[in-house]
Amino acid sequence: MKIDLTETTSSKINAALVQARRDIGTPAIGMVLTLVIVTDEENAYDALKSATDAAHEHPSRILVVIKRVSRSPRSRRDARLDAELRVGADSGSGETVVLRLHGELVDHAQSVVLPLLLPDAPVVVWWPQGAPADLAGDPLGALAQRRITDTYASEEPVGALAGRAAAYAPGDTDLSWTRITPWRSMLAAALDQQKALRIVSATVEGEDENPSCELLAMWLADRLEVPVTRTHSDGPGLTAVRLETKDGAIVLDRADGALATLCMPGQPDRAVALKRRDTAELLAEELRRLDPDNTYEASLKFGVAGLATGPVDAPAAAPAEPAAEAPAKKAPAAKSAAAKPAAKKTAAK
Fold it and tell me: Which one of 199, 279, 302, 334 is separated from 81 by 20 to 30 angstroms, measured CA to CA?
């Protein structure tokens, strides 16, 4: 069922939702959270489609906030709210309300959204693009327990990580971090099987200006406390990770974006599924947990400056010199090790 309301109010929207549920025979509310999507007209369709697909796993009330830019000074003074309601089969497993804000109402979106939040249910705010610098300080972000961004959609994705770290608040997360969950799981499982091996350095290879590559490198540097080098490839996305040990290298190589090869000392190579996931899958994963992600916080605050940068065309799987035969490489390692406490000291300030 679809209902269009023009020049309406939040109370009228709530009343229309109640009546729509009665008309389709489902007066009870079985939704687990409210998902607020802050976007523009250009990206609204894709964002709403991803959220609707994710709602099959997490039934929710989806509020799409679209701020319409007024063309004339007079229209900018006229506040108006238009809404499109979707209930039942048209909204997947929940309810969808598309809110179009005009005029002065654009600066007061929280006053429209607040009455439409589900009572006693968590609130998640997602900015597919154009996220504010301070998520928790944003009027809409202040309503949420979880705030989701995507630095990959930024004009300078890697530079945006520094901004996310500076303004981090518990509950912030990013889809660039979610994209590397399978990589982190696979690498953690490989290290569990090789507990006797000591990691001395690591290399992360991926396409340029991909924040997921930087986040994975910062995660490895923070958790393993070893120097990590970031090298570039043609992609797609993250292509390889190499963990150096004195007994050989642990290599996870994914050249085609779908199937990866895991190589470990003393074991045969094995193929593992490591496909690139769409936005709906990433969003569904983020909605599974609404508590602060301390691992993401530590990795984000480690900082890109703590990573070493390798040659653009350097392959991650290239053989490395033994540590004893390469004394010249000790200087970068010491620099990277020193960069970690410096980064954490800055974050503490």
Answer: 279
pLDDT value of position 302: 93
Whether residue 236 has a cis bond before it, omega within 30° of 0: yes
Q: What are phi and psi of 263, to 5 degrees?
A: -120, 130
Structure-block tokens of residue 210: 């991909």
Strand order in the sheet with 238-245: 270-273, 259-263, 248-253, 238-245, 199-207, 228-233, 308-309
What does the alpha-carbon distance between residue 129 and residue 334 come to, in Å, rounded to a whole number?
38
Number of neighbouring beta carbons within 10 Å of residue 81 = 20
Whole-model pTM? 0.83
Structure confidence by residue, pLDDT tens digits, 164-183:
999 999 999 999 999 999 99
Q: Are 264 and 253 spatial neighbours (Cβ–Cβ below 8 Å)?
A: no
* Local structure of residue 139 (DSSP, 8 states): T
**Strand partners of residue 243:** 202, 250
